Amino acid sequence: MSTPCPTPPRRPIARAAAALMLAGFGVLAAPAALAQAAAQASGYSLAAQPLDQALASLARQAGLQLLVPAELVQGRQGRAVDRAGDLRAALNELLAGSGLQGRVDGMTLVVERLPATAPPSGVEVLLPDVRATATTARETATGPVQGYRATRSQTATKTDTPLMDTPVSVQTVSRELMDDQKVRSVKDAVANVSGVYQQHGPDGNTMDSFVVRGFSVDSYGATYLDGVKDFSRSPKETAGLERIEVLKGPAAIMYGRIEPGGLINRVSKRPQAEALTTIEQEVGSHQHARTSLDSTGAVGNGSDWLYRVNAMFEDEDGFKDDTHNRRVFFAPQVEWRPDTDTSVRVGLDYMRDKRSWALTYGTIGDARGPVDIPISSNLHGKDDHYRDESAALKLDWSRRLNESWTVQQRVTLLRRKGEAHGTGLGSADDDGDYTRDYWGWENERTDVFSTNLELLGKLTTGDVKHTLLVGGDWFDEDYDSGGWAFGGTVVNVNIHAPRRDDQAYRLDYTVMPYKYRNRNAGLYLQDQLALLDDRFHVMLGVRYDHSDYAYQFDTAHFHPVDKKATWRAGLLYKIQPSVSVYASYVTGFGQSQFDWASGSLFEPQTSKQFEVGVKFEPLPDFGVTVAAFELIKDNLTMADPADPLRTILAGEATSRGIELDLSGRLTRHWDVVASYAYTDVSYTRSDTLQGERLMGVPRHGASLWSSYRFGGSGWKAGAGVIARSSILGTQRAWDPALYPYTLAGYVILNAMVAYDFRLGAHAARAQLNVANLTDKRYNPTTYGGQDRIGLGEPRNIVASLGVSF
Q1: Cis, peptide link before residue 128, omega less than 30° from 0
Q2: Closest C-alpha to 746, from 198, 111, 202
Q3: Which of 119, 570, 661, 781 is exposed most, by the fewest CB atoms within 10 A?
Q4: Residues 789-799: tens digit of each pLDDT
């Protein structure tokens, strides 16, 4: 048991709360003035896209609300528009030949059918001059995001809720931003979000692993797909995603047992009624080649059945000697919409991955820091690799029972298998000598069944509107490593002359059984209340979890059963439609705790967070979120410094910080995403680590990405920067002589240029991206000490050509 220590004064969070509240009042006058300036900015620009989305974007640019019957625009495609300074011309260009017309009625853009006596198609529909200060976006929580900024999400609440009405911090990485940056991994996408950092994961760092608000998320289930937890050894594929969302703080109230820093939710692309197919080919550094397909539409004219197919094949050499990656991804899905009240979607996600072990493991260090060798040096065996193959069957259905109630369910069945033949490395001495031995798993198998069933109600009691959610979920994961393999004959090697063909360590390694069965059932209730003419919002939620965890490692067996009730409450007040201030409190329920060697059980991890923030929209299509938080995590464990196979209690840690996220369109051609986070995380009650900062977490992190479209020329250019301060490389208890072994901060520059043009009758885009423009050498992560240190990728150039038809 850890010894209680005096809790430090918590004045910084109080000061931050007061500052944020003052900031909210300080921006009272700003949105109206800036919206007026935006309305006076010349011109309107629209990409080719579904007509309902194009009209919504045009209304936002004009500062108008949009009113259009869904049946008039459903399944129809809008053409690209680029007309300077004239709303009438932009609307006529967009609606030409559609049989529709538009008019401005006060603060609303109204779209309706042309009357029978409509003027010829060549005659313009005249609209009055427009000046407005309000906007309403027609976006859904699971649909495409216009530009870089999302306005709605369901990750925080499991309901389609405007972000301006949500009393927690939720940030979104849109598909357009991922395409502009040529994002191919979740880690690159979430680099745009404050307080989210890549982490060096276990077992050779083969999987996605992150730190959010100072605390690690579960490496074996670091991200969710459409709100359902899944599993993969390999980094998740982004080709089939519409957006990636990050919910900050404990999410157990909606998703069950989860680490408290936050949740990363990948939102799938969904079938669309309008037929559209895009094929893209990439080529680039290190013999990179990647081909992707995205095709959607109705199965037939007037059909109730829609389809979407995402597929991708990638093949490349790594930046290290004798390394290679190959990936196949295939995600077909169909959706049945027999009426406006019913939707049934069935899909498959299949992925096969083979990667060289050296590319994920990183590098090693000596007493001075990471070893100074060429970045192409491979310190592992030539044939060291891991394979991962998974298939997930997904079912998602909903049925509106009446005007007030909807029932919905999600089901995921996942099966995967994998193997790894890798190496563990020792640290280097002053002469550059290090050791290499065996590390891997023999015949890994995982089966996951996950489901939730929910009843959603829209009710009114007096002057109060309720969005009520009642639900239950079940998660069942059966994992068998097939044997955790390690040891073998040690091979002595030198960093300046690595021998990659010596496989002696593969002859006599040790194999230990390692398996577990993880089952969790939960019931939850949530009510979102809106009152005072939608200005005051209250969010209340409670959840009960029952967890059953059976585990075996070598001869040790244990079976903890944990039960816990958690809750959250949030308040949000809209000072005006474009300014919200909020406060929230939430508790969390984390993983079971145990000693790997003996099977001794500890209390499960728990957490609690208090957060205050301001959300405001200084422009119609531009938003800012500022949040301050204090997050406490209890019952942490750590490896025993005297025996790494034993586990001991580490105590309590507290993370305090301030985060800033902004995204959106500054002008009709200029888009920006930026973030900054200050994170102060340390052990606040611990016998062993009292007062120490947690390793691997930068105190400061920032990012900026900006892109500009050059009018109607088709050209677009973008550039960005990612900056991280230094991180602690180990904890004092593990190696007092080495502590703190700091890894230096870094700044990375990225850039792109793209050209949209017509290729015959089809829209096309040619694009060039350069990541790590200055070829900076950096170490973004650590697993502790000198033998597992992350290694950032060198300069990477990718050229691509995409065609849509």
Answers
A1: no
A2: 198
A3: 119
A4: 999 999 999 99
